[in-house]
Amino acid sequence: MTEQFDYTTTEHVVGPEAADPAAEETVFDERVRAEARLIVERYPESRSALLPMLHLVQSVQGHVTAEGMRFCAEQLALSTAEVNAVATFYTMYKRQPCGQFLVSVCTNTLCAAMGGDEIYRALSEELEAGHEETAGTPGAEGSVTLEHAECLAACDFAPVLQVNYEYFDNQTVAGALETVRALRRGERRSPTRGAPLTDFRDTERQLAGFFDGPGAEEAATASAAAPETVRGADQARERGWTAPPMPEEVELPPIPDKK
Ligand code: FES
């Protein structure tokens, strides 16, 4: 499939190879189209389905391709420019083929100070890969894509990393290296909490809302909430503390006129 895409217009540019409808069929076949319709049915407005739809594309292709963006645009009656704007804004949508495992090392302030920078450096050397680069052939057994990530919302367990969005808390350089070496051998280490590891594409399928692949049953019921994180909520429940009720109506401050 020709990856021709003009990001400056609302029209997609179709090269001779990309225009071949048979080629389109091979990837986004009737099954995927039916799943896309199921996603759309979840929302009152079809355009609201774009985020899970992009995850569906990644579950099929391992990243978001120009073809995948055209597929979303067609399904949701959006322009390819609108789809592109969303796909390039969120870091969870990958523009390069992803490995079997995506390793995200938090290098935001707290994790960086607690050792996240050293962990990222060590993994980068081990994998001979930089940000969003893959050791091994993307998608093949044992392939690992490395990325540094902004705050992963687990600062109480800094430094943290995620593998396919599952948490590995309180990391050390040695422990992170061990985990990544195991992944390269095709072994799946158990995350600190949450669901067992699945392949990147299977994880993406779950993020699209389909819990029918490998590990999906566990993922549907697993809780990633650590006792430390929800301790405040637990204590409030035990002591009967509640927040004051929300008023029926809240008076908002007037919006100043535009000058
Ligand atoms: S700074 Fe790393 S999880 Fe928040």
The CATH architecture of the domain at 101-211 can be given as: 3-Layer(aba) Sandwich
- Which cofactors or ions or other ligands sit in this model? FE2/S2 (inorganic) cluster
The percent of residues in helical segments reads 40-55%
**E-strand count:** 5
Q: Please name the fourth-level CATH homologous superfamily of the domain at 101-211.
A: Glutaredoxin
Any idea of the CATH topology of the domain at 101-211? Glutaredoxin
Helical stretch tally: 10
- Through-space gap between termini: 50 Å
Range of strand content: 5-15%
Silhouette: globular
What radius of gyration results from the CA coordinates?
21 Å
Low-confidence stretches: 1-24
The main pleated sheet reads as:
5 strands, mixed
Explain the layout of strands and helices.
Blueprint: H1 21-27, H2 30-41, H3 50-61, H4 66-76, H5 80-87, E1 101-106, H6 109-127, E2 133-135, E3 144-149, E4 161-163, E5 166-168, H7 173-184, H8 200-207, H9 216-221, H10 231-239
Parallel strand pairs: 1-3
Antiparallel strand pairs: 1-4, 2-3, 4-5
Helix pairs in contact: 2-3, 3-4, 3-8, 4-5, 6-7
Bound molecules: FE2/S2 (inorganic) cluster.
